[in-house]
Design brief:
By secondary structure, the chain is an alpha+beta fold. The chain is built from 17 helices and eight strands. Helix content is about 50%, strand content about 15%.
């Protein structure tokens, strides 16, 4: 217990007295310098040391060196840069001096995501390049996967980005993989691989990837990084020189097409998803894209949902629409409100019965809410529709159909 004089009352307005320096000998004060540099001294010891440093030049020099050493020992909380830092720096620079040849806004997510992935790859050694990766996507009503390596993932990105390169008239990375082997006539190669003049119209991402993997003499290694990086730079440079005009140029994915502006968003999305696959394989953290880029990717997925839902319905994988629900193109019809929470989110009204119908709040029959990153992982086939953490209200069949359609957006 404390005595009556241990804590004397302080009158109003009276401030607590600063700790008085202890009277310590020089050897003791010198011995306290290390603890002082680490901020491990008591208040009285700190006051004594700091009072001494004003009088002793030798101890002041030693204290300065110790403080600098402590600064070097303190490791930053994270070695990863904020994913939005590059965008903020570029915005600041371009605000002061606009670029002579600006990158179209619809290509900036691809520019940013390929740069982030390239930064992740730059210090990889052989062990990281050969780390196993499982590519996952959703097909029909279940998950499927393909095993490869980090280098194999970059080869996959190189092959599929080549669809955009071919549409822009750039070199297709598949050209080297399609060269006939020693002594094989060119015509034989085309017949055995099923490739003719309309190869780009028939080949999708999976076929191109398998062709590149199997067409190489050896499994992909770190050497794949250079052609992939050169291709990403060429794509950004080309769309920048051509401006916004070619944003509607069709890019064939084999069984469907996307306009160039959406194809570049699609490639940005896949680059981020596979960068996360790579980061998981080497046990390294990886942040989502900048919020405005993430929003653009989610918007693309939301715009693709009606057609994907219709395709699943034609294949017998979704609830059939009754004739009383059918509407003509351009007219409002039954809709699901897709609410995406988070910095990249927003709200979209998804028409349920026809891709040509217009989403309508007056005809809303269901409401689904998901986190922005969770929705993207669902659209990438990394989360199953049953496991997606979704708030649900309304028509259960409509909700199930839309969640499964979101998962069906994924592919190899």
């Amino acid at each position: 217990m404390t005595g009556p004089t241990d804590h004397a009352p302080r009158h109003d307005g009276e401030q607590a007295a600063a700790p008085q320096p202890l009277r310590l000998e020089h050897p003791v004060l010198k011995a306290l310098l290390g603890a002082w540099a680490l901020a491990a001294c008591s208040a009285e010891e700190t006051a004594a040391v700091e009072d001494h440093l004003g009088d002793c030049g030798a101890c002041a020099d030693e204290a300065r060196r110790l403080r600098e050493a402590v600064g070097l020992l303190q490791r930053p909380e994270s070695l990863d840069l904020d994913p939005g830092l590059r965008t903020r720096v570029l915005d600041s620079c371009l605000g002061r001096r606009p670029p002579r040849i600006p990158v179209p806004s619809w290509a900036t997510p691809y520019d940013a995501e390929t740069a982030r992935l390239d930064a992740l790859l730059q210090d990889f050694g052989d062990a990281e390049w050969h780390a196993p990766v499982r590519l996952r996507w959703f097909r029909g009503d279940g998950e499927t996967y393909r095993r490869t390596t980090v280098a194999g993932v970059i080869a996959h990105l190189l092959a599929v980005d080549g669809l955009v390169a071919a549409a822009l008239g750039l070199d297709d990375p598949m050209a080297a993989a399609e060269k006939p082997q020693d002594g094989t006539p060119e015509g034989t190669t085309e017949q055995t691989t099923g490739q003719g003049e309309d190869r780009e119209d028939r080949e999708g991402p999976a076929e191109r990837t398998e062709a590149l993997w199997t067409g190489s003499h050896y499994p992909p290694t770190r050497s794949v990084r250079a052609p992939w990086r050169e291709q990403t730079h060429a794509l950004v440079r080309t769309v920048s020189f051509t401006g916004d005009g070619p944003g509607t140029l069709p890019v064939s994915y084999g069984d469907f097409e996307l306009p160039l502006r959406d194809a570049m968003l699609d490639r940005a999305f896949e680059c981020w998803v596979h960068a996360e696959d790579i980061a998981d394989a080497v046990h390294y953290p990886y942040a989502p894209p900048a919020p405005r880029h993430l929003h653009s990717m989610i918007d693309l997925a939301a715009r693709m949902l009606p057609e994907t839902l219709a395709a699943r319905r034609r294949a017998g994988l979704a609830t059939p629409s009754s004739t009383r629900h059918l509407v003509t193109a351009g007219r409002p019809g039954r809709s699901l409100r897709l609410e995406i929470e988070g910095s990249g989110g927003g709200q979209w009204l998804i028409p349920l019965d026809s891709p040509g119908a217009v989403g309508s709040a007056a005809h809303e029959v269901a409401h689904v809410a998901l986190d922005d990153v969770e929705f993207c992982r669902l659209a990438a086939g990394h989360v199953s529709p049953e496991e997606a953490a979704a708030g649900q209200l309304g028509d259960r069949d409509a909700i199930r159909d839309v969640l499964f359609a979101a998962a069906a957006l994924s592919r190899m």
